[in-house]
Amino acid sequence: MRTYEVVTYGCQMNVHDSERISGVLAAAGYVPAETGTQADVVVFNTCAVRENADNRLYGNLGHLAPVKVAHPGMQIAVGGCMAQKDRQVVVDRAPWVDVVFGTNNLGSLPVLLERARVQQEAQVEILESLERFPSTLPTRRDSAYAAWVSISVGCNNTCTFCIVPALRGKESDRRPGDVLAEIRALVDEGVQEITLLGQNVNTYGVEFGDRGAFAKLLRACGGIEGLERVRFTSPHPAAFTDDVIAAMAETPNVMPSLHMPLQSGSDRVLKAMRRSYRSDKFLGILDRVRAAMPHAAITTDIIVGFPGETEEDFAATLDVVRAARFAAAFTFQYSIRPGTPAATMPDQVPRPVVQERYERLVELVGEIAWAENQKLETQTVEVLFAAGEGRKDAATHRMSGRARDNRLVHVAVPTEPELQPRPGDLAEVAISYAAPHHLNADGGLISLRRTRGGDAWAARQQPAGPAATVLGIPRLVRAQ
Ligand code: SF4
Questions:
Q1: Of 91, 125, 159, which closes a domain?
Q2: What whole-number percentage of the chain has pLDDT above 90?
Q3: Do 299 and 212 sit in the same domain of this protein?
Q4: I need a labelling partner for 52 at 20 to 30 A (CA). Which of 59, 228, 309, 466 fits?
Q5: What local confidence, expressed as pLDDT, does residue 96 receive?
């Protein structure tokens, strides 16, 4: 059986797509390469958000050229947003690539690999619109107890720094019945936590004419027996409505955590970004969220150095950050993305200025995050233990997981294996110390609940037939 490996760059959308890529390869008879062995097929699922995403991809392809020479029959495939953007250019720049496929035709990969092998010729197939909804494709999920569930693909917005609409097209929504059926099937397999996925979940339903569809979907998740936790990403402040806040507050298994991209605190810059909301609306949403869920943790994305950003604009961003009290923030230095309107805007901000502002922002965000974390010391929180998150530290006997508000918690666990939680299990713990970016619970477990998610994880650890080892875990590299 030919082996494969999927290398993933970028966002959760790509992580979810990589699970589908692994699924269609497994369905075609491929098996995942054992860690440390050279796969017969290497698939790069690429990101096009940041400039050095190009350099990183072509750099990795360069490294693989001699490897391919040393492994006759080995094939290389490039998919994702960079493939959708560059198309034939990928093969022109790296003629040892066998297949280039796009964001709209993941399911075609096995056929394209076979055609390339038989015809001894690179295959480039890019579709302008979705061939079939990725969620209808077979999948191989990374986790036994947590899952991404796509509710829409594409985006109708036109933020001037973003290439996504050009590469993933207009928003296409899955019907709620399909989404809920997938979630029920996942819960039957032991999944405890799902994350609803869309470029802009708040406009979910626009395609089938139901503006309230997202809030209804959250409430419907509340009725699924055995589903412990519901999260979602990415919301958009412009379309964030009060029915969603009410649904979050009134549906027990919807988690009190919200990742709401701000991007800038300056109304002038938000206008230039074409983000169709202003700072007062953004802060107003946060006030209403906190009124309904006082313990909600709010995180965000912020871009520093957008073309034309002045010191006054940046000061406005710092003011909104002080008012918003984010639990954490993903902060980015603006970099030109060819093909976006912002790339050709005047007044590109000099790098040293961007760097200096970035450092000030990171410092402020860190101070506030730490202060917000310190409010949780002595509090009791529920933790869902996670595999591959933080660490299972033999010296400190700690395991890591996420609280309901999505904060990372390192928990001191019993030394006796039979008393230790498994990834997927739930426990109540008391927070003993708050660090800037995580919490510690050194007092051990107050209570432990073994879940079907923990059972599913444990079942995966058991040596079983070929099928069970078909995990195809993609390595994740965030395009910085
Ligand atoms: S909302 Fe804006 S930033 Fe997000 S995917 Fe759509 S265009 Fe890009």
A1: 125
A2: 84
A3: yes
A4: 309
A5: 97
pLDDT, average across residues 119-134? 90
Substitution candidate for ligand 1 out of 50, 155, 262 with most atoms within 8 A of CB: 155
Burial class (CB within 10 angstroms; exposed 0-12, middle 13-18, buried 19+) of 419: exposed
Is residue 12 included in any domain, yes or no?
Answer: yes
**234 CA closest ligand 1 atom index:** 4
| Residue, of 212 and 472, whose pLDDT is higher | 212
Helix ranges (H only) for 375-470 are 452-461
Percentage, residues of the chain above pLDDT 70: 94
For residues 327-347, give the mean pLDDT.
92
Domain that holds residue 401: 380-449
Residue 134 corresponds to which amino acid?
P
Question: Which pLDDT band holds residue 308 (cuts at 50, 70, 90)?
Answer: very high
Shared domain for 23 and 88, answered yes or no, is yes
Centre of ligand 1 to C-alpha 105, Å, is 21
Nearest alpha-carbon partner for 183 in 161, 150, 141, 154: 150
Mean pLDDT, rounded, for 397-411: 95
Tell whether omega for the bond before 335 is within 30 degrees of 0, i.e. cis: no
Average of per-residue pLDDT across 396-414: 93
Res. 466 pLDDT band, cuts 50 70 90 = very low
Our count of domains for the chain comes to 3
State in Å: Cα 160 to ligand 1 middle: 9
Give the Cα separation of 292 and 290 in Å (integer).
5
DSSP 73-94: T-EEEEEEHHHHHHTHHHHHH-
The rounded distance, in Å, linking the Cα atoms of 169 and 252 is 34
Nearest atom in ligand 1 to 155's CA: 6
Domain boundary among 92, 125, 158: 125
- pLDDT (tens digit, 9 = 90+) per residue, 251-265? 999 999 999 999 999
> Quick one: pLDDT band at residue 134, thresholds 50, 70, 90?
confident
CA angle, corner 465, sides to 464 and 466, nearest 5?
125
103, 158, 162: residue to mutate for ligand 1 pocket, most atoms within 8 A of CB: 162
DSSP 285-328: HHHHHHHH-TT-EEEEEEEE--TT--HHHHHHHHHHHHHHT-SE
Cα(10)–Cα(470) distance, integer angstroms:
23
Same domain, 66 and 168: no
